[in-house]
Specification:
With 368 residues, the chain is an alpha+beta fold. It is built from 12 helices and 10 strands. The protein has 2 domains: 80 residues; 258 residues, Bira Bifunctional Protein, Domain 2 (BirA Bifunctional Protein, domain 2, 2-Layer Sandwich), CATH 3.30.930.10. 37% of the residues lie in helices and 20% in strands. The strands form 2 sheets. The protein has a 7-stranded mixed β-sheet, with helices on both faces. Strands 2-4-3 form a 3-stranded antiparallel β-sheet. The longest helix has 32 residues. It is rod-shaped and about 135 Å long. The termini are far apart. 30% of the residues are buried. About 4% of the residues have low confidence. Bound molecules: 3,4-dihydroxyphenylalanine. 3,4-dihydroxyphenylalanine binds next to strand 9 and strand 10.
Length: 368
């Protein structure tokens, strides 16, 4: 039975139809036109064995088929080439790559928010050095040499003191320069430690300025703490200081109640509980009513209804004396807020380390 060229042709056309790459096409060519075992050459062989009378006609058909295969494959090569993009071209039909959008870190958001709330109340925001000397971090704040805060256990001391060159007026604070800075020659003491709180900024600012004073000082602080659920060796605080004639505790309370309502909503209530800080008298720990349960008691507030948010008090006369202010004439209040702590309360985060792990799954859950 003579082979049917038509059958091979339709098989070939079917296969050609499914070819989409140059590699597949090369395989198809090998299979049909290969010298050894190629479809066309075995077809020729079979024809050689066909009866005399058919041989010539079959040979012509087979040759024709061979030409057809060659041409069809060449055409497809050209067609595939035409589909290829010229070098450096852009396929505008591809879907766009998403642009990764940056966002502010929750601690930055909260710091900005605090600065905003205080700016509305007329406070200037100032920054100071993270490498401090014992005078500004402790002594001038009425923290005696035997106070536990000074202990090596709590404070990170530098292995050797560093000379810090600070200007006579230590802050670049255009707000206050406009009012006239205080020309006090600052004794530049060598830095011996990483500041354990932002309270040293009270001293630095008063040394360089006359009252009235209304500032906040946000920044990093350092403590010799190991990482755990509620401690990191570096965290952030915002210090506040107000000094003028006849500033009273009512001013302190009004200011902080306003702050808590601005942060936690108009229904937030504040509780002031007496405590001790060497640089304020009287001193208070401030609590805000639990925003989870509204004060009724729940696991977030450990069933007390209150969350501790900051420390504050009326500036101690010894602090005024250290900066050469007359404590008979001036009074003031100060406060210190831990930004991480506030963020944990506000966003219901129970592990402080989350703020430093840069895990986008966490960060993206917090409001912008
Ligand atoms: N310095 C305190 C701390 O690090 C916070 C603080 C408490 C600051 C009372 C103050 C204050 O200005 O009056 O925990």
């Amino acid at each position: 039975m003579p082979p049917s060229v038509d059958q091979f042709r339709s098989a070939f056309l079917e296969e050609l139809h499914h070819v989409s790459t140059e590699r597949d096409l090369q395989r198809l060519r090998d299979r049909y036109l290969g010298r050894k075992g190629g479809v066309v050459s075995s077809l020729m062989k079979q024809i050689a064995g066909a009866p005399e009378g058919d041989r010539r006609r079959l040979g012509q058909l087979a040759n024709q088929f061979k030409t057809e295969v060659e041409r069809a494959i060449d055409e497809r090569v050209q067609a595939l080439k035409a589909l290829q993009q010229p070098l450096g071209s852009v396929d505008i039909s591809l879907p766009g790559r998403p642009v990764a959008q940056g966002r502010r870190h929750p601690l930055v958001i909260l710091r900005d928010r605090l600065e905003e709330i205080f700016a509305e109340m007329g406070y200037a925001s100032v920054e100071g050095p993270e490498i401090e000397d014992e005078y500004h971090n402790f002594e001038a704040l009425n923290i005696p040499p035997d106070h536990p805060a000074r202990d090596m256990q709590d404070t990170l001391y530098l292995s050797q003191p560093v000379e810090v060159r600070r200007a006579t007026v230590p802050l670049s604070d255009p707000f206050d320069f406009a009012q006239g800075g205080r020309a006090v020659e600052q004794i530049n003491r060598p830095g011996t430690l990483l500041r354990t709180h932002t309270s040293g900024m009270q001293i630095r600012y008063m040394e360089a300025h006359e009252p009235p004073i209304r500032i906040i000082a946000p920044g990093r602080v350092y403590r010799r703490d190991n990482l755990d659920l509620t401690h990191t060796p570096m965290f952030h605080q915002v210090e506040g200081l107000v000094v003028d004639e006849s500033i009273t505790m009512a001013d302190l309370k009004g200011t902080l109640i306003h702050l808590l309502k601005a942060l936690f909503g108009p229904d937030a209530r504040a509780l002031f509980r007496p405590t001790f800080f060497p640089y304020t008298e009287p001193s208070a720990d401030v609590f805000v009513s639990c925003h989870k349960c509204g004060g009724g008691g729940c696991p977030v507030c450990k069933r007390t209804g209150w969350l501790e948010v900051l420390g504050c008090g009326m500036v101690h006369p010894a602090v005024f004396e250290a900066v050469g202010y007359d404590p008979e004439r001036y009074s003031g209040f100060a406060f210190g807020i831990g930004i991480e702590r506030l963020a944990m309360l506000k966003y219901g985060v129970d592990d402080i380390r989350m703020f430093y792990e840069n895990d986008l799954r966490f960060l993206e859950q917090l409001p912008q």
